[in-house]
């Protein structure tokens, strides 16, 4: 029985498909099928039912699956123990980034980490902040750059990257274009342009509006703040934007939002009990360094 056979078996069991399993283990599909057949001959039992549209475990396959997984975990643990003794870090880290955030120097942060730990596999995905938070809490992500109202999220530890005012921005021909500030309640009957639900900036708007006793009239939603600014610049409504973006737009007039003032934060977040593996712990320590935080913040 070979280690690769165990790996292929677990991959097919998880994917319920030989082709997807082959892609997962980076081997041609015939190679996976051949090794599974060899494993079945050695064990003297059929491990998969191949008669349906999806591949399912037989009774024998279901019985051996926990042992196959345990064997692979034991081998991974042995490799990790040796790597820790020799100073080589291995493993995989999963990073998330809020969709509405401009990447800034996050690629540089990850590249620096990869340079120090070349044997660690890094994956990066985008989603709204609520999805990222759920993924962090579930252990699907090790680190994420999220937008939030306060920067504090139950079950997570955070390191603030940016904290800035959220402003209202309109075209220079708008009737509000002579105002320096606007009370939030004055936006009650205006068509608003904002990020979708699940983002930190939208949560700040919705929570403040609820306290003020009204529901915002969202006319346009987009996950890219630049698109929000473009829509407002064409006179389609009032854009709710981070001040750093609004101030760069010559076609827009930005106003402070008052009563209450709105603020948005961008924060690095990870599980409060700490990442599960040494690779993830190393990435968190790298991301928490002042150099890494200021690098991302400078490009928000």
From TrEMBL:
List keywords of the entry alphabetically. DNA-binding, Transcription, Transcription regulation
Q: Which family does it belong to?
A: Belongs to the LysR transcriptional regulatory family.
Domain of life according to the entry: Bacteria
What this protein is called in its record is DNA-binding transcriptional regulator, LysR family
The chain positions of domain HTH lysR-type read 1-58
Report the InterPro entries cross-referenced here.
LysR_HTH_N, LysR_subst-bd, WH-like_DNA-bd_sf, WH_DNA-bd_sf
Q: Gene3D superfamilies per the record?
A: 3.40.190.290, Winged helix-like DNA-binding domain superfamily/Winged helix DNA-binding domain (1.10.10.10)
Q: Which PROSITE patterns does this entry report, sorted A to Z?
A: HTH_LYSR (PS50931)
Gene Ontology MF: a single term: DNA-binding transcription factor activity
One GO CC annotation, please?
protein-DNA complex
């Amino acid at each position: 029985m070979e280690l690769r056979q165990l790996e292929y078996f677990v991959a097919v069991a998880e994917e319920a498909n030989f082709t997807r399993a082959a892609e997962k283990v980076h081997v041609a599909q015939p190679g996976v099928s051949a090794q599974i057949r060899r494993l079945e001959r050695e064990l003297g039992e059929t491990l998969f039912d191949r008669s349906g549209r999806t591949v399912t475990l037989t009774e024998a396959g279901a019985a051996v699956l926990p042992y196959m997984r345990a064997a692979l975990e034991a081998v991974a643990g042995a490799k990790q123990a040796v790597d820790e003794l020799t100073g080589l870090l291995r493993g995989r880290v999963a990073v998330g980034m809020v969709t509405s955030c401009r990447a800034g120097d996050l690629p540089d942060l990850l590249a620096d980490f990869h340079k120090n730990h070349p044997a660690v596999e890094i994956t990066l995905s985008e989603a709204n902040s609520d999805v990222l938070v759920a993924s962090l809490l579930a252990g699907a992500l090790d680190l994420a750059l999220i937008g939030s109202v306060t920067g504090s999220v139950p079950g997570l530890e955070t390191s603030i990257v940016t904290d800035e005012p959220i402003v209202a921005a309109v075209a220079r021909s708008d009737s509000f274009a002579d105002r320096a500030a606007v009370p939030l309640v004055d936006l009650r009957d205006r068509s608003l342009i904002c990020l979708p639900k699940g983002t930190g900036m939208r949560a700040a708007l919705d929570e403040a509006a609820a306290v003020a006793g009204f529901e915002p009239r969202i006319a346009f939603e987009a996950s890219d703040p630049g698109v929000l600014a473009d829509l407002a610049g064409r006179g389609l409504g009032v854009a709710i934007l981070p001040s750093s973006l609004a101030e760069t737009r010559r076609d827009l007039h930005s106003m402070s939002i008052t009563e209450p003032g709105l603020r948005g934060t961008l924060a690095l977040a990870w599980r409060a009990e700490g990442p599960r593996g040494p690779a993830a712990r190393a990435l968190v320590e790298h991301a928490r360094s002042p150099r890494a935080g200021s690098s991302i913040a400078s490009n928000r």
